[in-house]
Design goal:
Helix 1 crosses helix 13 (about 290-300) and helix 3 (about 45-60) crosses helix 4 (about 75-85). Helix 10 links the parallel strand 11 (about 225) and strand 12. Helix content is about 40%, strand content about 15%. By secondary structure, it is α/β, with parallel strands linked by helices.
C-alpha cells in the first residue's frame, strides 16, 4: 500500500513490480496501475538469476528514471537492476528494524525513507509511511472492538474476537478464516474490506498485529489499540515494532502466550477516558500526516540534502 499510495499521488508514469498471483497484483489492477509480475520460485541463486533475467526482459522496453522499493525478496531484483543500470535507488523501511534486503542495498541507495525515527544513518530520513487516502463513511454501526487479523488472517486473533464478543460488540476482519468464523452470530465477521478507515473510525478500540502499514494506519486514525505481535516474523520485527510503540505509550502490548491481559486492557480503553486521550495523543507524536508528499519531494529532487 505505501508504494501504491505513492503511485496514485504522483504525476509520473509508474510501473509496479511484484510477485504474480499476489494481493499486490490484485491491488494494482483495482487501482489501474501497470503491474509487471515476476513468477517467484523457491529461493536459491539459480531461481534468483532466472527471476532477474525475466525482470530485465520485461523492463527492456521502458526507460526507468528512478526506482523505489520497500524491501523483501521480490524487491532485490529491482534493486540489482537499478544498480547495474545506474538508476537512482530509493529504499523505504516500514519497520523499526531494517530488513535484510534494505541492509544489503543500503550502501547503493540515494536515500532511505524510514517510518519511525529509529535509524541514525547518514542517508536516512524519517518520512513516515504513505498510506491509503483516508475516506470515512457512515454506513456501518459502531463497535467496542475491531479485531484486524491481517491480509492472511490469524487464528489467535479470531479466537480472541470470539471470546470478546460474549461481552462486547466486536467486528472481526478474518481474512482467509472467514468461512470458519462467520457462523458466530454474536460476532460480526467480514473477510476483507477496502473501507478499513470507516471500520476503524467506528471502533472504540482495535486489536491487531504489529505489521508496519496497519499500525501506521491505526495511529494515523488515532484509535486506542492493543497490539499482539506475531512471533514468527523475520528478525522478530513485529515484536520490535510493538515494543517501540509501547515504549512511546501508543498502545498496549500482549504476547501470544499471555492472553490474560486482553480483557483488562479492553475494559480500560473503553471505560477510562484519560487512557484513551493519552494513548491517542502519544500515537499522533509518532506519525506524519504528509508522508507521501515528503517522499515525492525527495523523488522529484525538491528536498535533496
Amino acid at each position: 500500500m505505501p508504494l501504491i499510495s505513492l503511485i496514485l499521488s504522483s504525476n509520473e508514469k509508474s510501473i509496479y513490480i511484484g510477485g504474480t498471483n499476489n494481493l499486490e497484483e490484485k491491488a494494482c489492477i483495482e487501482n489501474d496501475i501497470l503491474f509487471l509480475g515476476i513468477d517467484i520460485k523457491k529461493k536459491g541463486i539459480i531461481n534468483f538469476l532466472k527471476e532477474y533475467n525475466d525482470l530485465c526482459r520485461k523492463l527492456k522496453k521502458y526507460k526507468i528514471d528512478k526506482a523505489i522499493t520497500t524491501g523483501g525478496y521480490v524487491s532485490s531484483k529491482l534493486c540489482l537492476y537499478a544498480i547495474l543500470h545506474k538508476i537512482p535507488l530509493y529504499l523505504i523501511e516500514e519497520n523499526c528494524i531494517m530488513g535484510n534486503t534494505n541492509i544489503l542495498f543500503y550502501p547503493f541507495c540515494k536515500k532511505l525513507f524510514t517510518a519511525f525515527d529509529t535509524f541514525k544513518k547518514n542517508k536516512s530520513v524519517c518520512t513516515g509511511i504513505p498510506i491509503r487516502r483516508i475516506m470515512k463513511g457512515n454506513n456501518i454501526k459502531e463497535y467496542d472492538v475491531l479485531v484486524i487479523g491481517g491480509s492472511l488472517g490469524s487464528i489467535i486473533l479470531c479466537e480472541i474476537a470470539v471470546s470478546l464478543s460474549k461481552k462486547y460488540k466486536v467486528c472481526l476482519i478474518a481474512g482467509r478464516y472467514y468461512e470458519k468464523y462467520k457462523k458466530y452470530k454474536e460476532l460480526e465477521v467480514i473477510n476483507y474490506t477496502n473501507d478499513i478507515y470507516t471500520y476503524m473510525n467506528k471502533a472504540k478500540s482495535i486489536i491487531s498485529r504489529a505489521g508496519a502499514s496497519t499500525s501506521y494506519e491505526i495511529m494515523t486514525m488515532g484509535i486506542p489499540w492493543i497490539c499482539i505481535p506475531s512471533l514468527n516474523t523475520k528478525k522478530n520485527h513485529q515484536v520490535i515494532n510493538a515494543q517501540y510503540f509501547k515504549s512511546n505509550n501508543a498502545c498496549y502490548i500482549c504476547y501470544e502466550d499471555d492472553m490474560s491481559l486482553i480483557n483488562e486492557y479492553v475494559k480500560k480503553i473503553i471505560f477510562n477516558d484519560s487512557i484513551r486521550v493519552n494513548m491517542i495523543s502519544s500515537q499522533k507524536k509518532l506519525i506524519k500526516n504528509n508522508s507521501t508528499e515528503i517522499i515525492l519531494s525527495y523523488l522529484e529532487e525538491k528536498n535533496e540534502l
